[in-house]
Amino acid sequence: MIIYNETTSNFLNHIYENKIGYVLKENVLTKMNKVVSTSELNSWERSLPQMAKVIRDADLKNDTHVLLEYKLPSSEKRIDFLVAGEDEKGNKNAVIIELKQWQKAKVSEGDGIVRTFLGGRERETVHPAYQASSYKRYLLNLNESLYNDSSIQLHSCAYLHNYIKVKDDPLLDKRYRTYVEYSPLYFQFSDRELAQNLRQKVAKGKGQEIDQC
Questions:
Q1: Which of 24, 31, 153, 39 has the alpha carbon at shortest distance from 96?
Q2: Rounded-to-integer distance, Cα 81 and Cα 9, Å
Q3: Cα–Cα distance, 106 to 129 (Å, whole number)
Q4: Which of 26, 40, 167, 170 is the most exposed place for a label (fewest CB within 10 A)?
C-alpha cells in the first residue's frame, strides 16, 4: 500500500504550501482507517522539507514520482521516501531513501546494530544503511516485476539530515562497511551529493510508468 504517490511538482507544492502533513494524515485515515500520532506528524513536517530541498536541487522532471510511506506487502514496515524515474539513457530507476533525524550515534554489538537517542533515551536500533538495504531486499524478493525485469533498477540509501559527520564516525565503522556500500549514507552537509545521485538516476521523469510496476 502506498500512502502518497505524487509527481515531484505536486510534492514540492505540498511542501511550499505547508500541506504535506495534512495530506499524509488524510491519506492515512482514508487508506488505512488510522489516526496519525502527533509524533509521526511532526516527523514528516521536519524531514520532508529537507527532502524537498534535495528534490529541488536535483532538478528533476515534473513527472518524476515521489512515493511516501510505502507499506511493504505482508509487513507493517513502511519506506519513508521513494523516488521513481528514468535516467539520461532511458533506464528505469527507483531510489529508496530512509530518513533519520538523528544527531549522533554509537557503535554497538550485534549485526547492523547501533546506539542512538530515541524516545527520550539512548537505545539500540538498526543501522540506517542496514534498514534501507533490508527494504530493498524485501522488495526484490516480493515484487516480481522488479525482480524479473532487469530494466528496472532498485537503489537504496539513507539521509540523516540533522547529523554532522565527524572523523572516524561510528556510523561508518568497518563493521557496517558492507551495508554502507550497499546503501550509502548522506549527512547534513552532503545533501548536494544526494541531489546529484538522484539527478543521475531519475532526472528524466516518467515515474508513473515505474511506480505502478
A1: 153
A2: 15
A3: 14
A4: 167
Q: Which three cell numbers stand for residue 134?
A: 533490508
In the chain, where the domains are located: 2-204
Alpha-carbon dihedral 200, 201, 206, 212, rounded to 10 degrees: -170
User: Residue 71: which pLDDT band, with cuts at 50, 70 and 90?
Assistant: confident
Is the pTM value of this prediction over 0.85?
yes
Q: Who contacts 66 (Cβ-Cβ below 8 Å, separation ≥6)?
A: 4, 5, 6, 7, 8, 11, 55, 81, 82, 83
Averaged pLDDT for residues 36-51: 94
Burial track 193-202 (b if 16+ CB lie within 10 A, e otherwise):
ebbebbbebb
In this structure, the number of other CB atoms found within 10 A of the CB of residue 12 comes to: 19
Cα separation of 95 and 158, whole Å?
Answer: 10
H-state helical runs in the chain: 8-16, 20-32, 38-58, 128-142, 144-148, 177-182, 191-202, 208-211
Give the integer Cα–Cα distance in Å for 19 and 12.
Answer: 10
